[in-house]
Amino acid sequence: MNTRKIVITGGPGTGKTSVIEALEKHGYFCFHEVSREIIRESQKKGIDQLFLKDPLLFSELLLEGRIKQFKEAHEKKTNMVFLDRGVPDVVAYMNYFGNEYPPVFNRVCKEYVYDRVFILPPWKQIYTEDNERYESYEQAVEIHDELARSYAFHGYEAIEVPEGTIAERTLFILNHLE
What we know:
The protein has 178 residues and is of the alpha/beta class. It has one domain (4-175): Rossmann fold. 51% of the residues lie in helices and 12% in strands. The protein has helices at residues 16-25, 35-44, 50-53, 55-75, 87-96, 104-111, 137-153, 166-175, and strands at residues 4-10, 29-31, 80-84, 116-120, 159-160. It has a five-stranded parallel β-sheet with strand order 2-3-1-4-5, sandwiched between helices. α1 (16-25) packs across α8 (166-175). The chain is globular and about 40 Å long.
């Protein structure tokens, strides 16, 4: 079975997690964002923001986690899985922060190819900061733009998910997969 791998991406605070949780309630298998776990693990070790302290190490860990999710998705015995962010997100964030990274980052973006990408745009009314999200709303808008550029650069036509209730956004995604 060729499992379709569907990415849900977007800047911080755009509702990705809520949509992923709704898709799970509809019975779909979903992979959750790996960065929150990496951040929590580094905070347990006394590193408040690993991305700020060692952006390359943080991004290498993210890349490793997202590749692992891709491979696990490929092995699922289901017709479709959803992933909270994909490999090109790592490149987008590195570009946004102006960090250098080795060529392998772009190479793996071409190697691990998703079937469809949905991007949730910034939405000021739902944006909130939390322990793992330290970006301002304005930065979230800039990150969204970098994500759109990264996915386009790697050959994707990301489908923008309009504002709406979680149910409406979830239905929009499901209706654009047929």
